[in-house]
Specification:
By secondary structure, the protein is of the alpha/beta class. About 40% of the residues lie in helices and about 15% in strands. The chain folds into two domains: about 140 residues, Aspartate Aminotransferase, domain 1; about 240 residues, Type I PLP-dependent aspartate aminotransferase-like (Major domain) (Aspartate Aminotransferase, domain 2). The protein has a seven-stranded mixed sheet, sandwiched between helices. A four-stranded antiparallel sheet has the order 13-14-17-16, with helices on one face. A two-stranded antiparallel sheet has the order 1-2. The longest helix has 20 residues. The radius of gyration is 22 Å and the shape is globular. Bound molecules: 4'-deoxy-4'-aminopyridoxal-5'-phosphate. 4'-deoxy-4'-aminopyridoxal-5'-phosphate (PMP) binds next to α4.
């Protein structure tokens, strides 16, 4: 049973006031808050067994290694991946997508095509453009529809006319909240012998993601969007591919033997994890997933979906508000503009009333370009938000709209 009051008590920051008002935090797509169980896991690690992993014979190092590797297994399990060799722990989705672009590079030649969703976050666009500059591959966007989802038929047509070797798509758009038909993109990639690369940064907090079931070649996400700490994320990759591909960064831990006559590499997953990893935050990310399980995550998502519907319906009923997209499947986000007002002004005035939303291009400039907008205000919900907070947000927005449209 999902108990919203008990859940909110687990998040100390939700009691904050901002400019004299109770905080209404609707910036969850940027980062979520952390329950005390996660915060305590970080202090507990530094208080009791802080030590470097993998290389020590002493007790603390053994305990840290067990906790770190145990956390890897926990993280894999939550996302349906039991082979820990397929769970690469990195700084976040950005580092994961950069890693993929770099390790795929030797498989590609000049003229090969990489299809990239037009509505992607820059983290799933720029690494492919850098690859294009380096080796001459061509990056072609998969168009986004006016509803806000990636156009699968257009992608299929592109594969019939171009030598497509990679399809890179976001599971959920961070600027719109639309859920893309990634199962179709993954099957299409398999059908034509291309790699599928999925950015799951916004899906992991709002859907029950089973990476094994989706069966993409690569799936990336960040812990901090799922109630875990910043600076930790995961790349799930198919074992056979990870084994065949070269490492990216070099250094400690990723090697088997180093000699000036030749160096050999570690086995999976450590081959892709050079240097001292983010031990405390990996352990705390596993604790965040324990937490999501403990509150009945499926019920938490039902609650979130119901407040999201309330938000969207109320926003659609407001004549001065334009909403970005109208997808069939929609999670967490409502990206909008107040007619005649700049999003920064709207966001700044909302902040004065205690409401936190994000404004701007949301690291998705091509999406803004598609819709002909300089940016939007983005309200993004998490399961710990409430129906009342949506109403407080709406009241604040009505005041702000009045101020900006009267003047
Ligand atoms: N992809 C999407 C869809 C995102 O929303 C974000 C974070 N805004 C990222 C990638 C990058 O995540 P991070 O900054 O945690 O690496």
């Amino acid at each position: 049973m999902f108990d919203i009051d008990a859940v909110r008590n687990d998040f100390p920051i939700l009691t904050r006031r901002v400019h004299g008002h109770p905080l209404v935090y609707f910036d969850n797509a940027a980062t979520t808050h952390k329950p005390k169980q996660v915060i305590e896991a970080i202090t507990d690690y530094y208080d009791r067994f802080n030590s470097n992993v993998h290389r020590g014979v002493h007790s603390l190092s053994g305990e840290a290694t067990d906790a770190y590797e145990g956390a890897r297994a926990r993280i894999g399990h939550w996302f349906g991946v039991e082979d820990t060799g397929e769970v690469i722990l990195l700084r976040g989705a950005t580092e994961a997508l950069n890693l993929v672009a770099n390790i795929i590079a030797p498989e590609l030649s000049a003229g090969d095509v990489i299809l990239v969703g037009e509505s992607e976050h820059h983290a799933n666009i720029v690494p492919w453009q850098q690859l294009s500059q380096r080796i001459g591959v061509q990056v072609i966007p998969i168009p986004v529809s006016d509803a806000g989802t990636l156009d699968f038929d257009a992608a299929r047509s592109l594969t019939q006319t171009h030598p497509v070797k990679v399809i890179a798509a976001g599971h959920v758009s961070n600027a719109i909240g639309s859920v893309n038909p990634i199962e179709d993109f993954i099957s299409l990639a398999r059908e034509i012998g291309a790699y599928s690369v999925i950015d799951g940064a916004q899906a992991a907090p709002h859907l029950r993601v089973d990476v094994k079931h989706l069966d993409a070649d690569f799936y990336a996400l960040s812990a901090h969007k799922c109630c875990g700490p910043t600076g930790i994320g995961v790349l799930f990759g198919r074992r056979a591919l990870l084994e065949a591909m070269p490492p990216w960064q070099g250094g400690g831990d990723m090697i088997d033997r180093v000699s000036f006559s030749g160096t050999t590499y570690n086995t999976l997953p450590w081959k892709f994890e050079a240097g001292t990893p983010n031990i405390a935050d990996t352990i705390a990310f596993a604790k965040a997933l324990d937490y999501l399980e403990s509150i009945d995550f499926a019920a938490a998502l039902d609650h979130e979906a119901s407040i999201h519907s309330h938000l969207i319906e109320a926003m659609q009923a407001r004549p001065h508000i334009q909403i970005l997209g109208h997808p069939d499947q929609w999670v967490s986000v409502c990206s909008f503009n107040v007619e005649g007002a700049h999003p920064t002004d709207v966001g700044t005035l909302l902040d004065q009333l205690g409401v936190a939303v994000r404004t701007g291009h949301h690291c998705a400039m091509p999406t803004m370009e598609h819709f002909g907008l300089p940016g939007t205000c983005r309200a993004s919900l998490a399961f710990y938000n409430t129906h009342d907070e949506v109403d407080q947000f709406l009241q604040a927005l009505d005041r702000v709209t009045g101020m900006l449209t009267d003047s």
